[in-house]
Design a protein that fits this description.
5 helices, alpha/beta, 7 strands, binds guanosine-5'-triphosphate, binds magnesium ion
């Protein structure tokens, strides 16, 4: 997959506001600060496309980026961010869930997991909810540059075992590091395969 063209289209806070287009959408979700926006910049090779910040809660809207004038990458806000007010948080989570369940163009949701940590209940619950809703998804372990290879392998194995407590099959799994520019080819090839 060669990315020839990227264009920011719009930020939305409801599914209804999202671009009126039938093009397939590949969206990125996960806890605040996991590296969603950084990964979009890695995939598009454009460090300035999605806004990145060391402070959790940076992305607060649904952001559509048009790729090669054919499909979209969608940057979503993070979940589980404790520092926003309860009301804002409920509101956030409501529109993220609305986007995920209503958006017919959503072709694959990439769930990002920080490779440094063992499974968090909030991630496992979210993944289980996706499975129950029948949403097509894949998992990307981020920030692998911060891990030694054996420790990384161990955490991935622990994650797989956790998911297999609930599901018979594992979703596609990817490893990434935006800092070391790793994982780009695998993820883009996967998207290309789906686009056919
Ligand atoms: P929210 O929009 O707040 O939900 O966060 P996000 O998931 O979009 O994370 P973002 O891409 O803004 O990155 C958060 C922080 O993690 C930033 O300081 C990034 O530089 C850093 N970061 C992201 N990806 C990586 C990575 O692969 N390796 C390392 N070492 N740091 C990373
Ligand atoms: Mg972000």
């Amino acid at each position: 997959m060669i990315i020839k063209q990227t264009q920011f289209i719009k930020s939305s806070t409801t599914e209804a506001q999202c671009p009126t287009s039938d093009s397939p959408e590949f969206a990125f979700i996960g806890r605040s600060n996991v590296g969603k926006s950084s990964l979009i910049n890695l995939l598009t090779n454009n460090q300035k496309l999605a806004k990145v910040s060391g402070t959790p809660g940076k992305t607060q809207t649904i952001n559509h980026f048009r790729i090669n004038n054919q499909w979209f990458l969608v940057d979503l806000p993070g979940y589980g961010f404790a520092k926003v007010s309860k009301k804002d948080r409920a509101n956030f989570e409501q529109y993220i869930r609305e986007y995920i369940t209503k958006r017919e163009q959503l072709t694959c949701l990439f769930v990002l997991i920080d490779s440094r940590h063992e499974p968090h209940a909030i991630d496992v619950e979210f993944i289980n909810w996706l499975g129950e809703q029948g949403i097509p998804f894949a998992i990307i372990f981020t920030k692998t540059d911060k891990m030694k290879p054996l420790a990384l392998e161990r955490n991935v194995e622990i994650y797989k075992a956790k998911l297999l407590e609930f599901w018979e099959e594992l979703p596609p799994l990817f490893l990434s590091s935006s800092a070391h520019k790793l994982g780009r080819e695998d993820i883009l090839n996967y998207i290309e395969e789906i686009l056919g």
